[in-house]
Amino acid sequence: MNEKNRQNIILKELQNFRDKDFTFSSGHILGSMCTQPHPIAKKAYMNFLETNLGDPELFPGTKEIETKLISFISRLLNAPKTATGLIGSGGTESNITAIWLAKNLSKKREIIIPKSAHFSFQKIASMMDIKLIPVSLNQDYIINISNIRKKINHNTAAVVGVAGSTELGTIDPIPELSEICKDEDVFLHIDAAFGGFVIPFLKELGYKIPDFDFNLKGVSSISIDFHKMGYSAIPIGALIIRNERCLDEISVKTPYISRKKQTGVLATRSGGPVAAAYAVSEYLGMEGYKDLVKRCMNTTEYTVKKINDLGLDLILKPTMNVLGIKLKNSSKVVKKLTELGWKINDMDRLSAIRIVLMPHVTKKIIDDFMPNLEKACKEIGEL
Class of 8-37+289-380 per CATH? Predict the structure, then answer.
């Protein structure tokens, strides 16, 4: 068999596997916080497949792109001149790096988290021998701020706030957390993996949203993902840190590559996602992202009305483009919707399902989905 035929057979086999997947382009993925990348991201990604940012002097042009991308995200988050950034695979890696940094700076082993914190903090606790101190949520599903000072003690390495929770898109009272952590001299990490590309533009669009970024003096670091509302290709996220000097705490010597020291969790890092994210940020710019958020919020408001028209209730009024629909048998509804060709996220802890109105979700898609949701709910006895 010649080489061309072998390649065709392998590619056909791969396509058969791919055909089994749900796709963002179909519009039938309604529960994910990722989306179909912008077309320019795909083109840029493919051109940088062989680049490795772990050995930057071999790829100085790609390294320059990374520097520009960090500068873009630093401006978005109002980072000071002393700040720096690390590009990684996404929110989990950014959260790991932030807590690693906080632990090494403080030599302490407890972190205070809201009960809405991402599951990556469970991994962090196991990896770093850290004790998690969970704090209850109030009726708005945000951290109960009155309990924070009571929880801080001589062994607190960091406090975590969430700006766009994974379940409901809620935003913790970051200004209050900032004041407390500034007073107590405690590292404050903000997990804005989802909300980082939403909140700044919601504020510009006139929504009443609390501050969450480096304008708050107590904020030490922020994680933000490009492959969520940044509209770019998987996987890429960033961690922005207020003070570049802190990085010495998590830097190691690297005697056999082009850089003598390296910071971060990963060594080898593809330049493809970085080039893709830079291409999208340059193409859209701040105005383009604002328009994107506006469109997603319009679709969100449209979906809320459709859900109410069905006679279903939301857990709470959405803060951003994330909806939680109350259901007694959420897992059964999710299973039925999958059979009908729709992928929704089950939130059994909250007895609800989650819909995320990402850029690939249009009002037309919502119109197509609603009869399926109604059918599933009636069959399960929710309506």
Answer: alpha beta
**Alpha-helix runs per DSSP H in 129-248:** 148-151, 174-184, 199-204
Answer whether residue 52 shows pLDDT above 90: yes
- Which residue spans of the chain are classified as CATH 3.40.640.10? 40-281
pTM of the model: 0.96
Nearest to 161 by CA among 141, 177, 140: 177
Exposed e or buried b per residue across 192-219, where buried means at least 16 C-beta atoms within 10 angstroms of its C-beta: bbbbbbbbbbbeeeeeebbbbbbebebb
Helix or strand (DSSP H, E) at 61: helix 60-76
User: What CATH number was assigned to the domain covering residues 40-281?
Assistant: 3.40.640.10
The DSSP symbol for 343 reads: B
Q: What are the structure tokens assigned to 92, written together? A: 């989990």
| pLDDT tens string 301-352 | 999 999 999 999 999 999 999 999 999 999 999 999 999 999 999 999 999 9
Check the CA dihedral 175-176-180-186 and report its sign: negative
Choose among 108, 220, 104, 119: nearest CA to 166. Answer: 119
Q: Residue 355 phi/psi, 5° resolution?
A: -120, 130
**Peptide bond preceding 235: is omega within 30 degrees of 0, i.e. cis?**
yes
What is each CA distance from 330 to 132, 252, 326, 353, in whole angstroms? 28, 47, 8, 6
- Start and end residues for every CATH 3.90.1150.10 domain found in the chain: 8-37+289-380
